[in-house]
Amino acid sequence: MTTNAPPPPMPGSAALLILADGRFPAGGHAHSGGAEAAVKAGRIHDAATLEAFCRGRLHTAGLTAAALAAAAAAGVDPLVLDEAADARTPVPALRTTARRLGRQLMRAARATWPSPELDALAAARPRGAHQPVVQGLAARAAGLDPQAAAYAAAYESAGGPASAAVRLLSLDPFDATTVLARLAPEIDRIAARAAEAAHRALDEGPGALPAAAAPLLDIAAEQHATWPVRLFAS
Predict the structure, then answer these.
(1) DSSP helix/strand/coil, 43
(2) Is residue 63 within 8 Å of 194, Cβ to Cβ?
(3) For residues 145 and 190, what is the distance between their CA atoms, to the nearest angstrom?
(4) 81 Cβ partners below 8 Å, 6+ apart?
(5) Is 0.85 surpassed by the pTM of this model?
(6) At what angle do helices 131-141 and 92-112 cross, to 10 degrees?
(7) Is residue 83 within 8 Å of 190, Cβ to Cβ?
(8) What DSSP character marks residue 229?
(9) What is the per-residue pLDDT across 60-114, written as a single tens digit (0 to 9) for each?
(10) Contact by Cβ (8 Å): 155, 70
(11) What is the pLDDT of residues 148-184, one digit of tens each?
């Protein structure tokens, strides 16, 4: 007898939805991922330019973050990864932001998925570890695999600016969601690439992880940090 029963869900699917949900209290809503500075500079002014910005961020900072998160979920030493994240974050403004977001995410993750590994990282980095490292360790505590951790980080790299653009430009939320839908195949590829690098990092160390650069994001972040009035923290 045959049935039309759907296939079983992937292990941890619901946990991934929780971790990637914008309502998860990790502090991301207060940050634009560079979108605020890009709007002021005129680089983002409609859905098309938002898509271009998010694509660029996904393939640079997003890839780097996704690989760090995947490596943490795979079991690479988070303190080593935190140092690798520092080396991949050349400007002080973005290092400060990454650690601030990591500290807030750590609070949420420890309350949601208690874990000795999260406790140990929190004790070792009381001022906050880099957000992608915490994100990967949170994914590991939630029972997610490295690729799922990479998905969470990659999606956030595009989803954060898209959400911020709705507020910054009064952009139609339908247009912002369409941008993310159009980027979905690229998010898939970034997550797969990040997970593959994470598995290599288990044997080769953090040097196997991508270190994609985004100089314009770096410069804009330093400029944004000096603004006396701004809507977003970064």
Answers:
(1) coil
(2) yes
(3) 15
(4) 68, 71, 72, 130, 133, 136, 206
(5) yes
(6) 20
(7) no
(8) S
(9) 999 999 999 999 999 999 999 999 999 999 999 999 999 999 999 999 999 999 9
(10) no
(11) 999 999 999 999 999 999 999 999 999 999 999 999 9
Two structure tokens written together for 231 = 């809507």
Give the residue carrying structure tokens 């339908």.
174
DSSP state of 207: G
Length of the chain in terms of residues written = 234
Q: Do 83 and 129 touch, CB atoms closer than 8 A?
A: no
9-16 long-range contacts, CB within 8 A, separation 24+: 11/143, 11/145, 12/142, 12/143, 12/144, 12/145, 12/148, 15/113, 15/139, 15/142, 15/143, 15/144, 15/148, 16/139, 16/142, 16/144, 16/148, 16/151, 16/152
Contact between 25 and 157 (Cβ < 8 Å): no
| Assigned token pair, 191 | 């997550």
* CA separation, residue 117 to residues 122, 133, 208 (Å): 9, 12, 23
Which residue type occupies 30?
A
